[in-house]
Amino acid sequence: MADNVAITPGTGATVAADDISGVLHQRVKISVGADGAAADLAFGQGDMAASLPVTIASDQSAVPVNQSSQAYDVSLLVTRPANVTAYTAVDTVGGALTFASIGPSASTIMITGAQLEPRIASIPSGMTSFRLYLYNVTPPSAVADNGAWDLPSGDRESFLGFIDLGSPADLGATCYVEVNNINKQIKLDGTSLFAYLVTTGGFTPANNSEVYEVTLHTVAV
Length: 221
What we know:
39% strand
């Protein structure tokens, strides 16, 4: 191309570079079309009839729009035996627990939040935090209340990890702790989730048959 020559967009015409007044504010046109036919579209033009086509992959029949999630909130009551036997660190409270209907059968779910509500008037000396160990079936170890928690070889296949519930706060006639934004993803075997509630610190219960409420919030993913 010769020096001092410019191309006018959309026309292919040339003008001298020192005379570009006719080049400014020109429309630039592109050719599109799924069938290969030319379809001019000027940038800045309001008519979008010739907009670029969107291709959906052959293995995807539709694009989900405004798909709502399936959320679950499951609470259960853990009633201690009628005794005031002391718990040592890493003891199980209440034995094996079952959170029934916590997600679709054999689905992947995400635990988003949890609450622990010991229905006791004050925090016993030595009580600190709690941890919830998770399983996709009833743990074969069958640890009873006040038994020492462990992860034996027979539990490994069903073990799903754990979530820390934190340390309950004294709210007067009730103690309470919650944890949010857990976002722990797990795979169910059926529709239920199984667990052990385990104390981190050793303590002596103040009363017989105390009740601890445990709540899990999940969404199917």
